[in-house]
Amino acid sequence: MNASDTHTHYSVLLTKLSKCSSACAYQTVDELVSTGLVLANFYGERHQSLLQELFLRRLFFDLLGKVCDPLVGSVVQRICLDFTYQPLFALKRFYRTYHGKLEAYYKLERELRILSNEFLACKR
């Protein structure tokens, strides 16, 4: 699959996730995250660090968006929350490698922590 096809596949998976039943949610989120990480790696291998960072951030915020979306089922929200660590840790590795400092990572981690606490409080 080339980059254009992979981008299209990512968009299709993101759309599918909005309409996904709980039965297919795990597989869809897993495939979405895998596709996103493959795209980020594609850009990293070509020394396009800005695109690599942007795609990792897009994946992270797409997952957070699904967690906060009231139209998405609670199972899908929970799975998306559980999967946010993958792009977050990839961003941590990216920031350490390319910037030598982790301030941007800490901001993302803090945002995830706040949203995670709010999400878990609402589900009690």
Describe this protein's structure.
The chain is an all-alpha fold and 124 residues long. Helices cover 84% and strands 0% of the residues. The chain has 6 helices and no strands. It is flat. It starts with a helix and ends with a helix.
Quick structural overview:
The chain has 124 residues and is mainly alpha-helical.
Lay out the secondary structure.
Elements: H1 3-18, H2 22-45, H3 49-68, H4 74-83, H5 85-98, H6 103-122
CA radius of gyration: 15 Å
- Based on secondary structure, the structural category is mainly alpha
- SSE order: HHHHHH
Question: How many DSSP helices?
Answer: 6
First and last CA, distance:
42 Å
Strand tally: 0
Shape: flat
Total tally of structural domains: 1
Low-confidence stretches: none
- Main beta-sheet annotation: none
Q: Work out the helicity level.
A: over 70%
| Mean pLDDT across residues | 93
Strand content: under 5%
Short key terms for the protein model shown above:
124 residues; mainly alpha; 6 helices; 84% helix
